Amino acid sequence: MTSPLAVILEKNQLTGPNYVDWLRNVKIVLNSEDIDYVLEAPMPALSAEDASTEDHAIYKKWVADEKKVRSYLMASMSNALQVQHESIPDSREILLHLRELYGETSRITRFQLTVELYGTKMAE
């Protein structure tokens, strides 16, 4: 990681429970590098033969920025999470999977299930 802000990610690796803080830090670093758009916008379509030079340039920039974003994400995860996500080629899919695992809604759901579990009684 070459960015001075990337040091934030090195010091705050994703371990799971710190997902919300980690995501905030990732967005800060990606925003400072002007590559945060990769997480929002889908990959531009490129028709092979009829695409203009400008379309090729946009496509190449998006691919290069996607590679940077994925590298930042993977480098800022624990080793176990890196292994789990190394086969996912797209940074947006990596974030989607992490959100399913550790996002706020999963915390709320776990809490509600815990409350229900503790609130149940055994039948006599």
Provide an overview of this structure:
The structure is a single chain. With 124 residues, the chain is mainly α. It has one domain (4-122). Helix content is 66%, strand content 0%. It is built from 7 helices and no strands. The protein has helices at residues 6-11, 19-32, 37-40, 53-75, 79-85, 91-102, 104-119. Helix 6 runs parallel beside helix 7 (104-119). The longest helix is centred in the middle third of the chain and has 23 residues, at 53-75. The radius of gyration is 19 Å and the shape is elongated. It starts with 5 loop residues before the first helix and ends in a 5-residue tail after the last helix. The mean pLDDT is 84. This is UBN2_3 domain-containing protein.
In short:
The chain is mainly alpha-helical.
How many distinct beta strands?
A: 0
Taking all Cα atoms into account, the compactness measure Rg is 19 Å
Shape: elongated
Mean model confidence by pLDDT? 84
* Helix content range: 55-70%
Uncertain residue segments: none
Largest sheet: none
- Overall number of domains: 1
What does the secondary structure layout of this molecule look like, with pairings?
Elements: H1 6-11, H2 19-32, H3 37-40, H4 53-75, H5 79-85, H6 91-102, H7 104-119
Provide keyphrases for this structure.
124 residues, mainly alpha, elongated, UBN2_3 domain-containing protein
